[in-house]
User: Fold this.
Amino acid sequence: MARKKFYVTSPIYYPNDIPHIGHAYTTIAADVLARWNKIKGNNVFFLTGTDEHGKKIENAAKKQNKKTKEFVDSLVPKFEDAWKKLNIDYDRFIRTTDSDHKKIVKKILQKVYDKGDIYPGKYEGFYCTGCEAYYTERDLEDGCCPIHKTKIEKLKEESYFFKLSKYQKKLLELYRKNQNFILPESRAREIVNFVKEGLRDLSISRTNFDWGISLPFDSKHVAYVWFDALLNYYSATKEGGKQKFWPADVHLIGRDILRFHAVIWPAMLMSAGIELPKSIFAHGWWTFDKEKISKSRGRVVNVDELISIAGVDSARYFLFRATPFGQDGDFSEKALVERHNNELADKLGNLVSRVSALVEKNGIVKCQNKLLKKLNIKKIEKLFEDYEFDKALNEIFAFIDVCNEYIQAKKPWETKDKKVLYELADSIKAIGILLYPFIPSTSEKIAKQFGFKIDFKEIKKLLKIKKIKKSEILFKKI
Ligand code: MSP
Assistant:
């Protein structure tokens, strides 16, 4: 049977500064899903990258007296490096300055223009460069951007418009017929209400700067950065044998950029006659010690800081254990350290080290693993499919508790019962495989030590007997 394909994307990030916990969160989530699908035997394509055009980036470069391309070239490696450190196993890192992407953007612009969905006009209204978004008077708070709280710019310039309003009905129909298009459900309701209120045509080009992709039908204009950026998901599949991956199975994003993805993006694709992605999942936002993450107030957790607290796997684990994926969460060093100590070190680490030490001393004898009945694998699969990562981790850790209780009850250090030890070793195989999406390097260590392959199908096959040695400490307590 042909392998099922699975295409997952993270947003592409603005390379105007180094990556922080917010960027890391979506990227790790995409990595968790990609790895989960890989161990299930699916054919995975995982895309991440950088969103490099627009006024915001141009301004950031100017501030540093750098040419814009030089500026982004100097920041992109910081993202690549951060993802490497976080053990992100992506398949392509797309940059909107890549030539294959630019070519596709022009092609789609032309297509939408030829269809009659783009017309010239004049934009007069508000624009926040920080958000790279248009606002109406009603959106503003005391004349300021509702997100950045800074004074908002008033624009008056020639612009081409995309007939977004034309797609209102079709969008509502899409949301109605396809309940999974926007997830979680509460976010879908927000979007439905927003679209029901009516859509205005969208200004999709700018004329007062030129750092962007010029319109193929009017080179005085550069494409609006979001029109350019959203297309990355599609352009990445156009070359190198990746066509089979379109449409995307899921776009993972933060809740702040849901309107772009759930309204503008499908309308663009409808206009261009391209199949729509299957699903868009908007996750919550992290605060830092209960306050908004803010660079000016020194409340940013950058990736190096995040890793330095308790290591990569503990950071990855914490972000998905502490808070349901769709909801906002609060980051604190204390909470991360507590989970590292109490769950990873005391529960998982102890189980692996006790069992491996006992097996090294006493050996094991193959037998049916009755313990495995206490692991609800079907439920865990469903939780992964529903993006309920915290609950999936809960289930896995409940099973770790079962194993730890089993050792206490059976006392294999007294009985030297090789079958009990086998059951425990075989259970550790299941645990190692299921935790792999979250803590891949720890799982790899466990797999090497106990001699199993990280593959979902292996959970139900009995562990092959090999010499097992006492493990190094997986998680040192802090
Ligand atoms: N370039 C656009 C995305 C284009 S996708 C076609 C963009 N970039 S961004 O760098 O500003 O932010 C990217 C992501 O980081 C968003 O999904 C946003 O939700 C996420 N986060 C930024 N700060 C965050 C938190 N404090 N918490 C969680 N995620 C946050 O938007």
Q: What stands out?
A: DSSP finds 17 helices and 16 strands in the chain. The mean pLDDT is 95. Residues 332-460 form a domain with the Isoleucyl-tRNA Synthetase; Domain 1 fold (CATH 1.10.730.10). The radius of gyration is 25 Å.
